[in-house]
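Quick check before the chapter quiz. The format below is the same one you will see on the exam, so make sure you can read both the input and the output lines.
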Amino acid sequence: MFRKQSDRPMMTPSTNHFRNAIVCLLIAAFFSFLDVSRTWCDPKRHIVQGHAIWHLFSALGLFSAGKFFAEQLAYTEA
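Here is the expected output.
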């Protein structure tokens, strides 16, 4: 049976997770570029490599995207 619009919860899902995902993925793309261009990929000059930072930020971005879509799914099924 279809629900009326008034049956939905008053609070809409937050877009904070979506913004966090976009920001983290943009930072990850920046460090990926630094890694590919060999700007931050010299083991003799840097302790932390751009590739490792890329992995961290892309994981954080994908985690945030998952949280955002889980909230959207919970909202649509509520």
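If your answer matched, good. The mean pLDDT is 83.
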